[in-house]
Write a structure and sequence with these properties.
Layout (H helix, E strand, L loop, with lengths): L15 H10 L3 E5 L10 H8 L3 E5 L8 H6 L8 E5 L7 H19 L5 E5 L9 H11 L5 E4 L4 H8 L34 H8 L1
Helix pairs in contact: 4-5
Length: 206
Amino acid sequence: MRQCPSPKFSATQISKNCEIEIKKVQGKFYGIGIGPGDPELITLKGLKAIQKSAVIAFPAGRRGKQGMAEAIAAQFLQPNQHKLPLELPFVQDKIALRAAWQTAVLNIAQHLRQGQNVAFIAEGDVSFYSTLTYLMWGLKATYPDIDIEIIPGISSPMASAAAIGQTAGPWPIATAGTAAGSAPGEPGGIAARPAESPVEAVIGCV
């Protein structure tokens, strides 16, 4: 059977035999949001996916330090799981960024082609301004039949609202003497107010 080409960001023409070979050996790729920092805020579904993945990928920390995503999930990682730190620089140089994304995709793909499940973890929610987007583009460009599952996480705006004991929206507040069942604007009812909390202001700017 022909040897399949290495993954590239541009769509690659793969022979029929190669597609069959890749499909047989390819593992599953998970994109998992692991929340804003508290390990207890990792969802049960996300934790189960982490535990059944042979490879755990995450953005590498800076200056040799542990990255945030790795630190959040550290207590749940097992010795037999392979840790795969990905160098994903915070720069505006498009050439450097593309090179980093392509290298990350190559590193992930080599495990998927061995039939190993790979979980990419990132803080917050992985569909909300996350590097997962670029990794998915790269993987799908070469492996259109790749099995990808995205597991959402708790994002920082939602966690911030909970931390300060507020809801995350410009909900009306009850005034003194509010009559039960009264509609907003009615005598004795609920007085609506504009967004004033820091949480509402942040969400309004997103």
